[in-house]
Amino acid sequence: MKMKLLLFLCSVLWTSADGSAPVLHEDLAMTGCSDSDGEKMFALDAEEIWFADFKKGEGVYPQPPFIDPIRYQEGVYESAVANQQICRTNLQIRREAMKGTPLKRDPPSTPMLYTRDEVELGEKNILICHVSGFYPAPVNVSWTKNGQKVTEGTSINVPYPSKDSTFTQISRLDFIPQLGDIYSCSVEHPALTEPHTKIFDVELNNPQPSVGPAVFCGVGLTIGLLGVAVGTFFLIKGNECS
């Protein structure tokens, strides 16, 4: 497997308002490349705010528009494309310098698999497969539904660097939960001898809605009967003393 070189540029910003104590913010710019693909991403306080989609040939703002995301000046995507050639030149230099050096490999932790919203049968939702703790980047994430491979409605973000020099990636699957459906998220990485797989069973992860109200009413009825019994006891004792 050919080594993938990732280059990082981080800067720290301090801001203050009305003479108050400075607030620490972390501004991250990441450039990465291999022989076949590349990455360019900007983040603020661990939130991805822009990345270059070299397959579609455009820059992407992943945050929803209602939060008024930061916008960059024109030409930022073209600059990212130009930097890819510089990155690949540096990649060749590093390959020659590190020839014969064993590549560090950290396997990813077991993926976390959860839904974006509370499960409601028949309502659109998103399954999220969260993978962290791996090096080098990226991981390969695949999805299945009832044992069949699924590609439609899937997406994955660019690898995000952690402070311990490992990476995190999040893959998503658009789905409509139905009772009995079983989904899986499988993660492949050079440091793994076999994929890490996590299962999501719609039936098991969606308790019957009647259970909650039934338990609540049962507890309420028990407390009510207990109150009546205690009141009757003191009423009888009061009559005996009079």
From TrEMBL:
The keyword 4Fe-4S does not apply. Pfam families: C1-set, MHC_II_alpha. Its main location: membrane. PROSITE patterns: IG_LIKE, IG_MHC. InterPro entries: Ig-like_dom, Ig-like_dom_sf, Ig-like_fold, Ig/MHC_CS, Ig_C1-set, MHC/Immunoglobulin, MHC_I/II-like_Ag-recog, MHC_II_a/b_N. Keywords: Adaptive immunity, Disulfide bond, Glycoprotein, Immunity, Immunoglobulin domain, Membrane, MHC II, Signal, Transmembrane, Transmembrane helix. The chain crosses the membrane at residues 213-236. The keyword Transmembrane helix applies. It is found in: Membrane. Residues 1-19 form the signal peptide. Belongs to the MHC class II family. PANTHER family: HLA CLASS II HISTOCOMPATIBILITY ANTIGEN, DR ALPHA CHAIN, MHC CLASS II-RELATED. This is Ig-like domain-containing protein. It comes from Ataeniobius toweri. The lineage of its organism: Eukaryota, Metazoa, Chordata, Craniata, Vertebrata.
